[in-house]
Amino acid sequence: MTRKLPLRERLILDRARQLGIPEPSDAAVEAHARAQLRAKAQMSIASLEPITLEDLAEAAAEFEEIEPRGGFYRLARGLVEKGLSLEGCILILATWNAGRFSKVHFKIDDLHNALAELRGDFAALAEYTIQSAELESHRTRIEAMFNRLAAIKGVEYTGAPKVMHVIHPELLVAWDAYIRGRSDKEDRLYVGLPCVDSKKWCLLRYDQAGSGYVDFLLDMKSRVQTLDYPKGGKTLAKALDEWNYVRVTIPIQVTEKAEEKRRKEAKKAKKAKRTTQAFTATRYG
C-alpha cells in the first residue's frame, strides 16, 4: 500500500522530479533526494555575485525612506534589552507580522510559555553571529526553536524568525513568504527583478519549517562570510533582512498590487458592460 505523503513531502518529491532526481521510496532515499536538492541550491548560491557593504548601505537607506515601521523594530529591541522579551516580541508581531497576528485569536500565554521554554536555547546561541556560528552543529536546536514558535497562532512560519531575530539580532535573520519562495509565489514574479538580473539573488524555495529556515541561514551566512562588516550599530543579520526586503519583497508586492488593481478594473468594466447590455435589451428589446 502506497504511503500517503503530507503536502510538504509531496512538494519535495515534485521538486525532485523537476530536477531529474529519482522518486524516493523510503526514508533513506528521501533524505538523499533532499541532500541532492540542497546541493543544487548551494551551487546556485555559490554562483551569485557577492553582497557588498555598498549594497547593504544602499538598501538600508532605501529601507529607512520607504518603511515607516522601522521605529517599531527599534522599540521592540529596546524592550528586549530591558528584559521585556514578551512585550518586545508582541510588538514586532503586531507591526511586522500583522497579516496573521490580527486575523487569529492570539494567546499571550502561548508565546509567554514558549519563550520561557526556549530561554536556555537563546542563551546557548548568544555568543554567535551570522558570520561566526557553525550552523550545522546548531541545526537541531534552531529547528526546534523555530518549530516551537511557528506552532503558535499569530506567529507561524513568517513570525517565528522575526521573534527569534528580535531576541538574538546578531545571528538570526528574518524572512517572509517572498524571500523563502512560498509555493503560491509564482516564478514569474521573480523574473526581471534587478537583483536577479544582476545575479545578486536567486529564487530558492525553502521548506517553511525549521529545517528550511536553517538552510536559509546557511545561505545567508555564505553570502557574507568574508564581509568586513563594521561592529556597532545595526547588526549584519538585520542589514541582510533589509536588503532582502527592499530588493525582493517590495518589488514583488508592487507587482502584485498592480495586478490586483488591473483585475479589479477588468471586473468592474465587465460588470458595467453587462449592466449596459441588460439595460439596452430591456429598453429596446
Summarize the structure.
The protein has 13 helices and no strands. The chain has helices spanning 7-18, 27-46, 53-66, 70-81, 85-96, 98-101, 108-117, 119-125, 139-150, 156-167, 194-197, 210-224, 236-284.
How would you explain this protein's 3D organization?
There is one protein chain. The longest helix is centred in the C-terminal third of the chain and has 49 residues, at 236-284. It is globular, with a radius of gyration of 22 Å. The model has no long low-confidence stretch (mean pLDDT 90). The protein has 2 domains: 1-47, no CATH class; 52-256, no CATH class. The relative contact order is 0.12. It has 13 helices and no strands. Helix content is 64%, strand content 0%. It has helices at 7-18, 27-46, 53-66, 70-81, 85-96, 98-101, 108-117, 119-125, 139-150, 156-167, 194-197, 210-224, 236-284. The protein is an all-alpha fold and 285 residues long.
Q: Helix and strand string, N-terminal first?
A: HHHHHHHHHHHHH
Number of helices: 13
Largest sheet: none
In percent, how much strand structure appears in the residues? under 5%
Estimated helix fraction: 55-70%
Shape: globular
Q: Report the structural category.
A: mainly alpha
Rg is 22 Å
Q: What is the number of strand segments?
A: 0
Quickly count the domains: 2
Model regions low in confidence, pLDDT < 50 over at least 5 residues = none
Mean pLDDT: 90
C-alpha end-to-end distance:
63 Å
